[in-house]
Structure formats: structure tokens, C-alpha cells
Write a structure and sequence with these properties.
Blueprint lengths: L1 E2 L2 H12 L7 E8 L5 E3 L6 E3 H9 L5 E8 L1 H9 L5 E2 L4 E2 L1
Parallel strand pairs: 2-5, 2-6
Antiparallel strand pairs: 1-7, 3-4
Length: 95
């Protein structure tokens, strides 16, 4: 099984990094819970996993702070509609 998240993530990152900003802006990033890729850490209650690590690395030198929300896909879409999430990645699973 292989996840093809990186083309979408790369394009979105390029677009966000091209935006000039004053100071650090917070981007709320919604991601689905799909173990072992993304989980909620039972000790901290925060999202963790390979996608979270990758996104954090990409945004390390940007003018953005990241806030992650791990939840179900349906809730992510509702939160996007309500303006509570700024960014998500559509993960496609291939065999």
C-alpha cells in the first residue's frame, strides 16, 4: 500500500509559501486519523505521524505556524465549510 500525498502537499505548500505575510500566521491543517500514518498521541492528545512530521519539515522555515486537527474525513469537510480548517490533504491509497 502506498500513499500519494506528496504531489498535492507540494503544490499547496508552494502556493502558501508564495503568500507574503507580516509575522507568523497560523494555518489550521486537518488530517484524517489513519493508523499508523496519523494518530492522536494518547499521552499528549496531539496529532502525530508521518504526514504531520512531513508537513512540519516543509513549513520549518516559513512564516506560518501550524495547528493540526486529527479527525474523521466527514468532520474535516464540515470544518472546511465552516472556516475552521484552512488546509487538508486528500490521501489516495494505492496497492
Amino acid at each position: 500500500m502506498r500513499f500519494s500525498v506528496f504531489p498535492t502537499l507540494l503544490l499547496t505548500t508552494c502556493l502558501l509559501l508564495s503568500i507574503s505575510s507580516k509575522g507568523k500566521q497560523t494555518i489550521t491543517f486537518g488530517t484524517g486519523i489513519f493508523p499508523p500514518g496519523n494518530v492522536i498521541d494518547p499521552k499528549t492528545g496531539l496529532c502525530s505521524g508521518c504526514l504531520i512530521d512531513t508537513v512540519n519539515k516543509i513549513f520549518t522555515e516559513s512564516d506560518f505556524r501550524l495547528k493540526f486537527i486529527c479527525t474523521t474525513p466527514g468532520r474535516i469537510y464540515r470544518m472546511i465549510e465552516n472556516g475552521e480548517i484552512d488546509l487538508t490533504v486528500n490521501v489516495t491509497v494505492t496497492a
